[in-house]
């Protein structure tokens, strides 16, 4: 059951304390939005960070990994690169690897993608009778990824080493 003890804390606050808490919350939210917008400007992409939602790219990426994306317009996309694209009618972007590039004489470039862990290419995901993705559906290319498990291990290791260091310092003073 949901605990509503925080409501008692709010009721006990005077107006100044309540105003201070609301102001702090507003600053946290606005800071997060400014960081997000700043990342959008720096990376040139509408969504600079995405979360991997499926196992289709294992072993490269696992479910829950964070991908940091950039919109590298000047660099041509090559076979083997990891791209993020959105299919018409679907809100969730897909993270897959470029399998083939089809370039016409007029300079029009199309891509065929596939998840590393998938048995077949992504033609089944595309619109009916569409064999390649047009370049305008590509959102970004992946530049860096962060494994949350690794971050958790680093935080735990840092916490343990900090506690151990503090404990050893206390022993020396006795």
UniProtKB/TrEMBL annotation:
Q: What are the protein's GO molecular function terms?
A: serine-type endopeptidase activity; signal peptidase activity
Name of a matching Pfam family: Peptidase_S24
**Keywords, sorted A to Z:** Endoplasmic reticulum, Hydrolase, Membrane, Protease, Signal-anchor, Transmembrane, Transmembrane helix
An annotated GO cellular component of this protein is: signal peptidase complex
Per the record, the major location class is endoplasmic reticulum
Q: Where is it located? A: Endoplasmic reticulum membrane
> How would you describe this protein's topology in the membrane?
Single-pass type II membrane protein
Please write the reaction equations for the catalytic activity of this protein.
Answer: Cleavage of hydrophobic, N-terminal signal or leader sequences from secreted and periplasmic proteins
- Sorted alphabetically, which InterPro entries does this protein's record hold? LexA/Signal_pep-like_sf (IPR036286), Pept_S26A_signal_pept_1_CS (IPR019758), Pept_S26A_signal_pept_1_Ser-AS (IPR019756), Peptidase_S24_S26A/B/C (IPR015927), Peptidase_S26 (IPR019533), Peptidase_S26B (IPR001733)
Q: What is its EC number?
A: 3.4.21.89
Hey, which family's this protein in? Belongs to the peptidase S26B family.
Q: Which PANTHER family match?
A: SIGNAL PEPTIDASE COMPLEX CATALYTIC SUBUNIT SEC11
**What is this protein's function per UniProt?**
Catalytic component of the signal peptidase complex (SPC) which catalyzes the cleavage of N-terminal signal sequences from nascent proteins as they are translocated into the lumen of the endoplasmic reticulum. Specifically cleaves N-terminal signal peptides that contain a hydrophobic alpha-helix (h-region) shorter than 18-20 amino acids.
* Quaternary structure and interacting proteins, as annotated: Component of the signal peptidase complex.
Instruction: Report the NCBIfam families cross-referenced here.
Output: sigpep_I_arch (TIGR02228)
Any idea what this protein is called? Signal peptidase complex catalytic subunit SEC11
**From which source organism is this entry?**
Neogobius melanostomus
């Amino acid at each position: 059951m949901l605990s509503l003890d925080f409501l008692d804390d709010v009721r006990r606050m005077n107006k100044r304390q309540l105003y201070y808490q609301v102001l702090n919350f507003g600053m946290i939210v606005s800071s997060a939005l400014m960081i997000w917008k700043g990342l959008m400007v720096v990376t040139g992409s509408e969504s600079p960070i995405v979360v991997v939602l499926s196992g289709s790219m294992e072993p490269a990426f696992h479910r829950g990994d964070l991908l940091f994306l950039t919109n590298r317009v000047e660099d041509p996309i090559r076979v083997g690169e990891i791209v993020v694209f959105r299919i018409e009618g679907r809100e969730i972007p897909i993270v897959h690897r470029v399998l083939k590039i089809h370039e016409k004489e007029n300079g029009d470039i199309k891509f065929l993608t596939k998840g590393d862990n998938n048995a077949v290419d992504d033609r089944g995901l595309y619109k009916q009778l569409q064999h390649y993705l047009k370049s305008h559906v590509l959102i970004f290319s992946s530049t860096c990824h962060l494994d949350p498990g690794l971050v958790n291990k680093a935080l735990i290791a840092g916490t343990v080493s900090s506690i151990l260091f503090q404990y050893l310092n206390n022993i020396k003073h006795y």
